[in-house]
Amino acid sequence: MRSGDGLIVRVRLTGGDLIPDRAAALAEAARRFGNGLVDLTSRANLQMRGVSDETLQPLLDRLAELSLLDASAAAEQVRNVIASPLAGLDPSAPIDIQPLIRALELRLIGNERFHFLPAKFGFLLDGGGVLPLDGVEADIALRAEVDGHFRLEAGGETLGWVRAEEALEAALGVAERFLALRQPDESRMRDVVGRLLNEAQQPSPPSGEGGPTKSGRMGCGPLATSFPVGVLLADHTPSPVASQRHLPHLVKKAAAPSRLAGPHPAGFFTAAAPFGRLDAGQLEGLAAIAARHGATLRLTPWRSILLAPLAVDVTTQVSSLGLVVDPGDPRLAIAACPGSPSCLSGEAPAQADAARLAPVLAGFVERGASVHVSGCAKGCARRAPASITLVGQGGRYGIAFDADSKAPSETEPMSLGELMAFLTKRLTENSFKSSDHV
């Protein structure tokens, strides 16, 4: 994709897994073929920035040498799978999803029908455990329950529960129904999930006319009817413990994964990149630390990088790279897109201004507020409403409370200085609205 600072090249990693040698090689490639800046995305991918038309092909050649280039653009696009970042490394996870991640990718790549799925249509595999993907959205999701079943979701709606060995068939079956039901202007599962649920409520067809498969009728949980996917459990009732998603000893006061930074008792370290942006030197430094301690790097959908497994505290080493290691750092609660001049649509330098505003925004964050600083009304960094939303308008910012980036501003656009004064006054008066969107 072309942006204000050149081409952006996405590197899609299977399960967010990045061994140290590859991380170091990607850092060197970002420096050599781009402007040395790397973005972490909410889908646990890397994006290299500042690539030119002249350096694009040499970069692709290097990615191919690293076995990080797909056979085709269609194969890369359909391989849109978010997975638990500790897959295969978390003994508390009810289901080890690591084998399923690549299996799902191969099924998506191998069936050309799935190549017709829209560009942003994505899957989620959540193994639960220490870092469940609660709150992370996907068009089709499989979320592990502690009783060993997956909960199958489509467009945020629960369809039912499925055995682990039949989970991929169920998810891909729902993808097939999406392709059959969607209209040309519909690109996400939420656009068709109502019709999908209505279809599920229809009476079962007579035997021999597309009836239940050998796995039994779909229709567990809230549906209790037949359904073309055919592999969901007809008689499964999730246990009360399963509804908690985590193992009991991990439920108490667990920090939101988006606010994690530093060492964790479960044996991993979270290095958070301010607003999801790091440079080649920082990625190189993380690769060196991981290699020194026998760890791998795992990208997360919260724009951070895990070092795991890790039995030592590397806080000082990671902090020296300029990355966030303090879970109380207000920047962890601030979503900010690159803004101008990096983005062609940006009307204000969102990330740079978010960093300047962080000290005054800290007071709001301490009270549980979330913050979104957007360079324009598109709101690429955060789709959901935030307690405080700032939107760039011709080099200034409009502000709205408990709103998304498309909401009308509650004030006239303000300069950065005026905004700081305004926020300081509101904080002193404790006059900002309470939000459920944290």
Automatic annotation (TrEMBL):
Name this protein carries in UniProt: Precorrin-3B synthase
UniProt keyword terms in alphabetical order: 4Fe-4S, Heme, Iron, Iron-sulfur, Metal-binding, Oxidoreductase
Limits of the Nitrite/Sulfite reductase ferredoxin-like domain: 1-65, 269-308
Organism: Labrys okinawensis
Top-level division of the source organism's lineage: Bacteria
UniProt entry tagged with the keyword Heme: yes
GO molecular function: 4 iron, 4 sulfur cluster binding; metal ion binding; oxidoreductase activity
Ranges for region Disordered: 196-220
SUPFAM superfamilies assigned to the protein according to its UniProt record, in alphabetical order: Nitrite and sulphite reductase 4Fe-4S domain-like, Nitrite/Sulfite reductase N-terminal domain-like
Lyase is among the record's keywords: no
